[in-house]
Known about the structure:
By secondary structure, this protein is mainly alpha-helical. It is built from three helices and no strands.
Amino acid sequence: MSAAAILKLQASGFSVEQVSALAELVDTQAATKADVEAASHKLDQKFDAAEHRLELKISELKSDFEATEHRLDQKIDGVEHRLELKIGEMKAGLELKIEGLDRKITETNANTLKWVIGAIGFQTLVLVGTIVGAVAALTRFIPAAPIIHQ
């Protein structure tokens, strides 16, 4: 407590004992500029330490994130590779089935063509036979023309 404050208290009616007790109380309870600076310095140190711990934790989390990202990339690459293999297998299987179907279609077309040609041949024979039969029947009814020799 300053001397000017003590004089003001005494002038306003405080006794010397009251002013003395008040000064002692203020001296033990009030913080000085040095006390405030020391507390501020301690707080600065604590904030710096906390900031350092946070930076370390952030760095650790970034490393963990990057490691996780790398593992996920590897897993995705593995899945992609397995899918490509599976698609390749399925494609090869489908190509074999298509080749088999193409052969069957070709065989079916050849067999159909044989049957069509056979049916046309048979119908031609039946038609020729009918014509020959009709000509033979007609020749029985038509008298033969005399052959003139010269």
